[in-house]
Amino acid sequence: MLIFGDSLSAGYGIDVDQSWTALLQARLESEGYEHTVVNASISGETTEGGATRIGAALEHFRPALLILELGGNDGLRGFPPARMKANLGTIIETSRSSGSAVVLLGIRIPTNYGARYTQAFENVYRELATELHLPWVEFFMEDVVLDASLMQDDGIHPNAAAQPLLLDTAWPIIRQALGGKAAAGIQ
Q1: Fold held by 2-178
Q2: Which tens digits make up the pLDDT trace of 38-80?
Q3: Active site (annotated) includes residue 97
Q4: How far apart are CA 86 and CA 110, in angstroms?
Q5: For residue 10, what are the CA distances in angstroms to 7, 19, 43, 69, 81?
């Protein structure tokens, strides 16, 4: 299982053992899944960077499942949503062509980017999920972002206390994507 994201999944500003990705490995083990979680997330990563490195990551790790959590840095930099959508589409199609299932974790950006841009940004995830029949989470940080006690001082990155909530948000869709693969021991 390959997690392909940015700082939200890389464990920015916290001990990596406290990150939601490390907690995911523990949950998989406790529920009898034999999957190994590989975290290929990079702080600051954009969808363009992800599209550039997805082929090598898939070839190296050969995951049964790719958990895709990218786009936040595109939004914070004001990149065109159409470009972000094309890059995410490339990552998804490349992953599927290699035999990996894909789960998409949607992100939102602050409203100070303007209603038009914010809506176009958020629509990228919805459109991809619909067009490509992807299991997805509409807003990965929904239970975290508005609670200052769960955020680092920068107001952008979740702290260690938020990590179990992030996992709880992503877990239902991850478990659904895994289906009956736990019994087969697919990694």
Answers
A1: Rossmann fold (3.40.50)
A2: 999 999 999 999 999 999 999 999 999 999 999 999 999 999 9
A3: no
A4: 22
A5: 5, 8, 6, 10, 23
Residue 91 predicted with pLDDT over 70: yes
Q: Say whether 133 is catalytic.
A: no
Whole-number pLDDT of residue 181: 46
- Active-site entry in 30, 149, 153, 154: 154
Question: How far is Cα 84 from Cα 50, in angstroms, rounded to an integer?
Answer: 10
Q: State pLDDT tens for residues 136-166.
A: 999 999 999 999 999 999 999 999 999 999 9
pLDDT of residue 179: 86
Catalytic residue among 6, 7, 19, 95, which?
7
7 is catalytic: yes
Q: What is the mean pLDDT of the chain?
A: 94
Domains of the chain, by residue range, sit at 2-178
